[in-house]
Design brief:
The complex is a heterotrimer of chains A (649), B (249) and C (257). Chain A has 649 residues and is of the alpha/beta class. Chain A folds into three domains: 313 residues, FAD/NAD(P)-binding domain (3-Layer(bba) Sandwich), CATH 3.50.50; 133 residues, Succinate dehydrogenase/fumarate reductase flavoprotein, catalytic domain (Flavocytochrome C3, Chain A, domain 1), CATH 3.90.700; 151 residues, Fumarate reductase/succinate dehydrogenase flavoprotein-like, C-terminal domain (Methane Monooxygenase Hydroxylase, Chain G, domain 1), CATH 1.20.58. Chain A is built from 17 helices and 20 strands. In chain A, α3 links the parallel β2 and β3. The longest helix of chain A has 25 residues. Chain A is globular, with a radius of gyration of 24 Å. The N terminus of chain A is likely disordered. Chain B is of the alpha+beta class and 249 residues long. In chain B, 35% of the residues lie in helices and 11% in strands. Chain B contains eight helices and seven strands. In chain B, strands 2-1-5-3-4 form a five-stranded mixed sheet. Chain B has a two-stranded antiparallel ribbon with strand order 6-7. Chain B is elongated and about 65 Å long. Chain B starts with a strand and ends in a 5-residue tail after the last helix. The mean pLDDT of chain B is 96. In chain C, 67% of the residues lie in helices and 0% in strands. Chain C has one domain: Fumarate reductase/succinate dehydrogenase, transmembrane subunit (3 helical TM bundles of succinate and fumarate reductases), CATH 1.20.1300.10. The chains are: A alpha/beta (649), B alpha+beta (249), C mainly alpha (257).
Chain lengths: 649, 249, 257
């Protein structure tokens, strides 16, 4: 049953503001229907952009070029450091350059199905349409995508897609696309339409009369707290996988911007939809600070196995083929090692949990290239994966040409995020959310090579249109003055919070608390979840948080660079977010995509959806009084992709 | 293993700074260099000493945040490896390690091992882009690019902007960083129309912050992405043309 | 956009830097491209390379000419005479070609030294605070790191060499035109001979880096050709310096007397 928890208050039904009409012409028609801002008037509008990853940089570049005045904040030393830079594999686009039957509709279909029917159809269709222009744009910017000898763009099949629609630049596609967007933004900085503030972190959203009107930020070098107002605020601040402590995200990735917005009234949607990537290098010991992803493309040629015999500590080369369990090939003969991420991850976890794990800590499974090397030769493997093999060897000290890689799933991407309507605007007018920070396009599970696509689609081709529709009626209104009480109050809150963190003077480091929080989340709200575990987490997290607030030790001052202080604020927000993740996971009493409730599985151990009761987006509203959050549901309807049980047998 | 670290501590840009020595105990060879610093920091916090500030983020060798001078080498002893990808199995018990920030006029020290590299952003802003408004691009396959050209452009484009080239250069020159970006864009047909203006503006900006190249190749040897100094020669050639060309630059 | 106060680093550049990085219209630029070109550090490197090539051509010819000392005293004296009086004669009047070459060499030397000095100043400023521990260089070899010092040694040597052989200040019993006699007279002194050898070794080290470096500075780079740049520079330095050093060695060893 839906919302059967006593802690959940049910709120109103949400409207995604999807225009009516045929899905194929919906976006084109809507672009015509939306209000425009006259070119000469655009410069009268101020827009604040938080974050400079693919979504933020591409949006800032495009809005600046249109003539808006954009003020960009990044906590990094340079916009180019945003975590989009780490994406390895590629970016999908329905170009059908390979003539293998791809189309906008097929990309749309695959994405909705891959997301296990928990995304908004109209958004996904628009995303598939935009994918075409993204590739054109990136190539024109000088992004050096891989090419074939004829000089045309190369594609590969990725993450189990049955068409080759993935464009890539070696194993550094995210880097190249981000640099393209960053350079486009740099051009606007030079032109004066974009003002860039680096090493400045947003610490609060300011809302006046229900509208988002500005932000309060802290200069990380001087500790100075300032207010900035604008006609619209855009959050492009990425995902929150670092709530798990160990994830493939960069060390500084955090949820503070979206969490502060949530606390100011923005709804947070589907927070329990977190993706666990199947191919990361397993953790070594407690000192492990993050997990390193090995591109999913490795599964194209590598074979995943564990020893038949539990606790078999022989060297992998001494284990005969007959004593190995190629569990993905055994269980999913059609897709084999190329099953979607959630399926691959869960199976690896199941094998490890049942005692078949490999490596010193028995916390991984083998990804073996011996057969591929026999079949294709070492050179061909080096050509394809050389840089990944080198990286693996640097980290583990093992040579993957000689012994199989060890891999294990790791938190990687969060499909959940702030709730947005079709215009990418949150329930707070004036607050737009783009990229991984919003919830919109991936449903309960994201397909490989789709994150880059979504970030850039939002930034280059969706937000620049939809924001005009919001701004147009505001012509002639000045942004709220930063002398307004709401700004002063927000500044005060931020200041008090920093002083509070510095004054606790406890005994444990921020990292210690973060690590403990991560363990709770990973154990109870990770790849497999159940009622008992989630309830346990919901009792443990507040206890740990109370301990944090009494016993954390943050040294140093507020007037110069102080990473412990930055982290302390972020971890404090992770505590609250982690609770909401568990509440959401508990409330969604079904399995779908990456959200696997162990109580709900098919006889074969697959996620068992409950479309009758849970075909909705769960958007949570913060309760200012301190009580449980309110659940608002946006019902999902599937007109174009028939609901079906996923099967990769 | 147990190591002795000599770490540069500097409270502010104007502080004189000094080396402090710390013991790094119980270091596992599976640790990354930065995880070793994390562990030292945990200990420092326990001892009531403000932790060492160092720049880091992705810890996968791609974001370019990290980078310190380790025993006189940018990013430490392992070639083609950013600091975050350096692992402690490169060291043995009892080793002493000296850690200093990048030093260059264009990279002023902010605190401890953290420096300000925004001069790199200024260089990119002065021309490190192709002027293509969003939506104005032709179909991606309209202009074929020979594979060899695309591959070479990619070789240049792998730059992570860490600043090791500047740090390692005896002259504090940013030639390799600038040349990588100039060459990547100038090689591709999409970047050609602005080729001369780009190189002129980017070199001019570079020279406001950094030293000049004396072709000692230390940048190439220190680059975690092993970007070739051939791109510096390409940039020099384009720069000459930009000064010769009748339409100015 | 209104803010409570100016954000601390709205733009971390100083006004002067902002001015400098702003796109400059062509009219504001210096009218002569050559001057503007030389103003840039990169332009100075071109000048270093081009004047270096001129110097290299000269010293290579100088070295070949020197070898005539092994043929006979008359041979090298006649060669000296021809250089002074008859080079390109009668296309040009006597000594005009000689002075032409001298002027080109002087200009090249002045520019080479000026550019080197200016670049050194730029490079010192580019790292106002030195590394506090010693550097562990990977690629920068001895030659590359000592260009300034070998350059200064060569410059001092040129002065001495002119005073010795052209003006005859230090040359016992100097006779203008008697190249063979003057050479033997000077180099018979072991101290002078050793000085010549040392200075030439410094020149060799300078050339070892310079003759390779000039390709980079001039933008001459082709993947298939690049390894020959090192071969060329090494061969050029070894052959040229070998040829030069053979003379004082021969005098010291009594082969030439």
């Amino acid at each position: 049953m839906a919302s059967n928890m006593s802690t959940v208050t049910l709120g109103s039904e949400l409207d995604g503001q999807v225009p009516s009409g045929d899905i194929e012409s919906l976006w084109d028609q809507h672009q015509f229907d939306m209000k425009l801002v006259n070119p000469a008037n655009k410069r009268k509008f101020e827009i604040i952009m938080i974050g400079t990853g693919l979504a933020g940089a591409s949006a800032a570049a495009t809005l600046g070029e249109l003539g808006y005045h954009v003020t960009v904040f990044t906590f990094h030393d340079s916009p180019r450091r945003a975590h989009s830079i780490s994406a390895q594999g590629g970016i999908n686009a329905a170009k059908n350059y390979q003539n293998d039957g791809d189309s906008v509709f097929r990309l749309f279909y695959d994405t909705v199905k891959g997301g296990d029917y928990r995304s908004r159809e109209a958004n996904v269709y628009r995303l598939a349409q935009a994918s075409l222009s993204i590739i054109d744009q990136a190539v024109a910017q000088g992004v050096p995508f891989a090419r074939e000898y004829g000089g045309l763009l190369d594609n590969r099949s990725f993450g189990g897609a049955q068409v080759s629609r993935t464009f890539y630049a070696r194993g550094q596609t995210g880097q190249q696309l981000l640099l393209g967007a960053y350079q486009a933004m740099a051009r606007q900085v030079d032109a004066g339409t974009v003002t860039l503030h680096n090493r400045v972190e947003m610490l609060d959203l300011v809302v006046v009369d229900g509208r988002a009107v500005g932000v309060v930020v802290r200069d990380l070098l001087t500790g100075e707290i300032t207010s900035h107002s604008a006609h619209a605020v855009v959050l492009a601040t990425g995902g929150y996988s670092n709530a798990f402590y160990l994830s493939t995200n960069a060390m500084k990735c955090n949820a503070t911007a979206i969490w502060r917005a949530y606390r100011k009234g923005a709804y947070l949607a589907n927070p329990c939809f977190t993706q666990i990537h199947p191919t990361a290098i397993p953790a070594s010991e407690d000192f492990q600070s993050k997990l390193t992803l090995m591109s999913e493309s490795l599964r194209n040629d590598g074979r995943i196995w564990v020893p038949e015999e539990p606790h078999d500590d022989r060297s992998p080369r001494d284990i005969d083929d007959s004593e190995r369990d190629y569990f993905l090939e055994r269980r999913y003969p059609a897709f084999g090692n190329l099953v979607p991420r959630d399926v691959a991850s869960r199976n690896a976890k199941e094998r490890v949990d049942s005692g078949h794990g490999v490596g010193r800590k028995h916390n991984g499974v083998y990804l073996d290239f011996a057969d591929a090397i026999d079949r294709l030769g070492t050179d061909a493997i080096t050509e394809k994966y050389g840089n990944l093999f080198e990286m693996y060897e640097r980290i583990t000290g093992e040579n993957p040409y000689a012994v199989p890689m060890r891999i294990y799933p790791a938190p990687h991407y969060t499909m959940g995020g702030l709730w947005v309507d079709y215009h990418l605007m949150s329930n707070l007018p004036g607050l737009f959310v783009i990229g991984e920070a919003n919830f919109s396009d991936h449903g309960a599970n994201r397909l490989g090579a789709s994150a880059l696509m979504q970030g850039l689609a939002d930034g280059y081709f969706v937000l620049p249109y939809t924001i005009g529709n919001y701004l147009s009626p505001l012509l002639g209104q000045a942004p709220v003055d930063t002398g307004h009480d709401a700004f002063k109050q927000a500044e005060k809150t931020v200041r008090e919070r920093i002083d509070q963190l510095l004054s606790i003077g406890g005994t444990r480091t921020v990292d210690w608390f973060h690590r403990e929080l991560g363990k709770i989340l990973w154990d109870y709200c990770g790849m497999g979840r159940n009622r008992e575990g989630l309830e346990k987490a919901l009792s443990e997290i507040p206890a740990l948080r109370a301990e944090f607030e009494a016993d954390v030790r943050v040294l140093g001052d507020d007037a110069s660079l102080n990473e412990s202080l930055e982290k302390a604020g972020r971890v404090e927000d992770f505590f609250e977010l982690a609770e909401l993740m568990c509440i959401d996971a508990l409330d969604r009493d079904e399995s779908c995509g990456a959200h696997f409730r162990e109580e709900h599985q098919t006889a074969e151990g697959e996620a068992l959806r409950n479309d009758e009761d849970y075909s909705y987006v769960a958007a949570w509203e913060h309760n200012d009084a301190g009580g449980p959050p309110t659940l608002h549901k946006e019902p999902l309807e599937f007109e174009y992709v028939a609901l079906s049980q996923r099967s990769y047998k | 293993m147990k190591l002795t670290l000599h770490v540069w501590r500097q409270n502010s840009p104007t502080d004189a700074g000094r080396f402090e020595s710390y013991t790094a105990a119980d270091i596992s060879e599976d640790m990354s260099f930065l995880e070793m610093l994390d562990q030292v920091n945990e200990q420092l916090i326990a001892d009531g000493i403000e932790p060492i500030q160092f720049e880091h983020d992705c810890r996968e060798g791609i974001c370019g945040s990290c980078g310190v001078m380790i025993d006189g080498r940018a990013h430490g002893p392992q070639r083609g490896t950013a600091t975050c990808q350096l692992h402690m199995r490169q060291y043995s018990d009892g080793d002493e390690i000296t850690i200093e920030p990048w030093r260059a006029a264009g990279f002023p020290v902010i605190k401890d091992l953290v420096v300000d590299r925004s001069a790199f952003d200024r260089i990119i802003e002065s021309g490190g882009y192709v002027s293509v408004p969003t939506g104005a691009a032709p179909d991606a396959n309209l202009i074929p690019v020979p594979k060899e050209t695309a591959d070479r452009a990619m070789d240049a484009a792998t730059c992570i902007g860490c600043g090791a080239c500047v740090a390692a250069c005896p002259n504090g020159a940013a030639q390799l960083f600038t040349a990588a970006k100039v060459s990547q864009l100038n090689m591709l047909p999409q970047g050609r129309p602005e080729k001369l203006e780009r190189v002129a503006n980017m070199v001019d900006t570079m020279e406001q912050f950094f030293g000049s190249c004396t072709n000692v190749r230390e940048c190439e040897a220190s680059c975690p992405k092993e970007i070739s100094i051939d791109f510096i020669a390409m940039m020099n050639r384009d720069y000459l043309r930009s000064r010769f060309s009748s339409n100015g630059a | 956009m209104s803010t409570t106060q100016q954000p601390p680093r709205a733009d971390s550049r100083t006004p002067a830097e902002q001015q400098a990085t702003a796109k400059r219209p062509a009219a504001v630029r210096y009218s002569t491209w050559a001057f503007e070109f030389y103003r840039s550090a990169l332009g100075k490197k071109y000048v270093m390379a081009i004047t270096g090539v001129i110097g290299m051509a000269y010293i290579f010819g100088h070295m070949i000419g020197n070898l005539k000392i092994f043929i006979s005293p008359e041979s090298i004296d006649a060669y000296g005479e021809w250089l002074r009086e008859s080079l390109l004669y009668p296309i040009l009047p006597h000594q005009v070609a000689l002075w032409g070459i001298r002027l080109v060499l002087i200009a090249a030397l002045v520019l080479h030294v000026h550019a080197a000095y200016a670049l050194t100043v730029i490079n010192r400023r580019a790292r106002p605070v030195k590394y506090q521990t010693s550097r562990d260089y990977i690629a920068a070899d001895f030659a590359a790191r000592t260009m300034r010092w070998t350059g200064i040694i060569v410059l001092l040597f040129i002065g001495y060499h002119l005073a010795d052989f052209t003006w005859g200040w230090f040359n016992p019993g100097f006779e203008r035109g008697s190249v063979y006699r003057n050479a033997v007279a000077s180099l018979s002194n072991p101290v002078v001979a050793l000085f010549y050898i040392t200075a030439n070794l410094a020149l060799g080290v300078h050339l070892y880096h310079g003759a390779w470096s000039l390709f980079q500075s001039l933008g001459v780079s082709r993947p298939r050709f690049n390894r020959w740049r090192r071969v060329f520079a090494t061969a050029f330095a070894v052959v040229t310096i070998g040829g030069f050093i053979s003379v004082p060695l021969a005098v010291l060893l009594g082969i030439v007397e």
